[in-house]
Amino acid sequence: MKKLKKVLLVVAGLIVLVIIGLALLAYALKPDYSGKKTLQGLQSEVQVYYDTFGIPHIYAETETDALRALGYVHAQDRLWQMELLRRVAKGRLSEVFGKDLVKTDKFFLSLGIDDHTTQTVATLDKQSEMAVLSQAYLDGVNSFIEDGPTPIEFYLTGLDKEPFAIEDIYNAVGYMAFSFAMAHKTDPLLTTMRDKLGEEYMRDLAIDSDTSTVWIKNYQKRDVDSLAGEITIGVSAVLDRLPIPQFIGSNSWVIAPEKTKSGKVILANDPHIGFAQPSVWYEAHVNTPTYEKYGYHLAGVPFPLLGHDRNLAYGLTMFENDDIDFYYEETNPSDSTQYKTADGWKNFEYVTKTIKVKDGEDVEFTYSKTHHGPVLNHIADQISVETPVTMSWIYTKEKNEVMDGLYGLSHAANIDEFKSALPKIHAPGLNVMYGDAEGNVAWWATAKLYQMPDSLSTKFILDGSSGKEEPLRFLDFSENPQAINPPWHYVYSANNQPDSIAGMLYPGYYLPENRAKRIVQLLDAKDDWDKESTSEMILDVTSSVNPGLITELIKLFDVTKLTNEQLVQVDSLENWNGHYSLNSTIPTLYHRCEYFMVKNTMEDELGTERLNQFLATHLFKRQIAWGAKMEQGKWWDNINTKDKVETRRDIVLKSFSDAWNSLVKDFGPDPTQWTWDKVHTLEHGHPIGQVESLRKYFNVGPFPVNGTREVINNMGFPYDSTGYYKVNSGPSTRRIIDFSDIENSISILPTGQSGNPFSKHYKDQAEMYIQGKFRKMMMNTEEIQEKAESVLIFTKAE
What we know:
By secondary structure, this protein is an alpha+beta fold. It contains 24 helices and 31 strands. Pfam families: Penicil_amidase.
């Protein structure tokens, strides 16, 4: 017995030592928000006041000193995020995560972002204000890498820290330019569907804004069905493995003085981005005697993409324009190193890259290029068809001045200076929203737009050899969609179709009218907006479209064939106002029905795999309302039932029955138990949290969350056979700037300011975000200094 006690005492002692060791490690690795540090290159002292949510308020004598401090504090909270983001374009994710990321690395290397960055930096004016400030920021990042503690993720993955260079900034922005990626998911899939099913099926899809004007030209069919399909499969696979989120959509509106209670402008913005931990934005408030900006920064980028000061504010949504075209290339039958152009045969360009793989051999691969761009066949190893498909992307074709554009936006003093910076952002396509203290409101669609030949649909793979399906001209920026101080006294964007551009509806991957319709409905009805009512609006969870869709389809029901429980639920559906709340059961029943409607309508033609690909497109979101209202159409018939031609009514009734049975199976026969909170949840995933044993330490959540797809509080989720709606994208911040009380504007982040799991600010906003709460974006210097939780002072090295 005594021996056992001794053994237990030794074990207990070891446990205590391990706990102490872990506590000391956690303390050593957490960010340092107070004290004094020397910082190389400073001209004078910099004070960083951290508020209660860990947001730095940086006070410096010069902007270069302020940016140097910003780089340091940004890195100590987000170095791991910076590291992953800069690796995407360079094809260096396999170096961290192993062989499973090789295809992802191949794909991003083939896009040519890093090569385009190299060309850009080679001609960069290193003495320009943009470059000088960028370098100061990088010096701060590198000072932390040299002197600060190593984030835990580097230990867990075995990575060594490496200094950052200006190329990393451009590559981070390049990833943002690509991350929309809807063309890759849509165009090859539509081409496969057209070639397999025929034009009649295509006419019943909401491919363009006004399908009555769409002409799908005759097409000489070739042996490419499997190729287009495999490109979609391949792209989906590589993007699904990305350890960082993608940009999705967004809401923003700016209300003019005529419609606000105070007579001052109010700007609201909530960019929709894939949820992840850490979340996308890093907030920082920079102050010098000549410059001030409260901004939201992308990891590793010195200038804020969203920002405000006392004079003006700006926000972003994704334009969703089509800036990628795919081309079939024709190989010379007598010389496989050549491809056909309108001017004769040209040689393929060949590019060889090497990918380093963790715990494995280096992978060397070669891809080919034409004048259009890279040949994508290499992204999916299973492609056997030899017809090359190339990708023409405006981002890598045009001169890259995006960083100059971001510098210009963040340093503009008025609307004219702000507007002059916009043409430099050629990609990604952005809706830039603007408001200022003078009462101006504006919206510009920024992108390098181009005109294609009439009646040519860029939603399908084009003919690369004839020269007849190429851009005719670039549009001048003055032709881009825009509105400055319109007579209806507000501007907005919800990623929906803009009005005609240069006499045409510009092709894109626009989202359906749902959010836009609700935004306009609410803004038109009120002329006394204030910060509080705007904050209520940004949290709105009422669908403007779904109740009308139900009203249309419920007419097809035969109530005599429904059970009493079903009659009660059908009655509730019929009287539903489209509001999504956690304790409601109607949203659960509606979305089960919606999924089975699409499945029962399209799976027989597409098969399971292509149906799932279709469900991942914006086209599917537009198709829901469009397709359900079609009384006749090829899609309704189930091609697998030879003795019957199904109608819309048949599909609606079967889908309701399938949905009901699936809910009974999952939650039991009592419909009151089918509440939205059981199926609609949000978990912020960290790459390390994919390891189950580490999930609870790195991931944040899961939480039941209200809202849904395509309401203002847009909580997006993928549709699949599980019947559970795990939210994977939504507001990356909710932000309201009120020029009547600029020092008390409000915002929130989805988790927290820090990406360091040992920081108290790793997830301190997560519950507030779920509950629809906000916090102040502090700008008053006296208040900031008085209420600061801690102060970090940087001094210049002697």
